[in-house]
Amino acid sequence: MEKTTVIGLGAGIACIVISILLHGDLGAFYDPASIFIVLGGTIASTIISYPGSMLKTLKTIYFAAFKKQKIDLNEDIELIVKIANVARREGLLALEDAIAEVDNPFLQKGIMLIVDGADGELVKNILETEIAFIQERHTQGQNIINSMAAYAPAYGMIGTLIGLILMLQNLTDTASLGPNMATALVTTFYGVILANLVFTPISKKLKALSDAEALQKELYMEGLLSIQDGENPRIIRDKLSAFISRRDIRRAEESMQQPNPEVKEIAQDGR
To answer: Tell me, what's the pLDDT at 47?
Structure first.
């Protein structure tokens, strides 16, 4: 579970609820008709906007923002260096045995292409194409959520207009004007909350996760191409360090200074 998504969503809801309770009653903000028009209208417009094949993945796309994504570029670099050491000692064909120890399908595919003797340019083109298609799929999901963020306030305004029209038809009852106006504005409230607390933040989180995944895959690709070119593992580590921030580089250097038999062995093999 991605804690930041849950914490942020919970904090936003808590701020809204507390602010309401400080000056009024939560019951004044509950209106089934308003909920129906905002949610129902948003869903209806989304269904119209996209084909069914894309909408089938909406649930998976949405909950991806709540799924914890473990990406540690420092660990990825060490894995690439370890693979480079194997290739340096035993040759590229020996990497076929290393595929079983790798749990990332993209990295597995890249290693298999190298083992099969594919040209470096071909390997690069295949991996770049896969990265591009993955990002395109992610962008499609983000676009659906962005559309919902745009539709929700619009339907909130539609609900407000409906409420105002009904209110103006009964101007003779002056005592009900205030409550009716409040009810009409609740739909706008629902639309703004859904857009700015749910849909837009979820879309931005999905983009951040997509960018992180793309960066990881680019690191894998660069490392694999360097291995195929026969570069020294230490040079590969220095090259891939450009993918991580200075803070992460310092953290990795500190961990390497600590006595670690596995890292020590990797360093010795790369001489």
So the answer is: 94
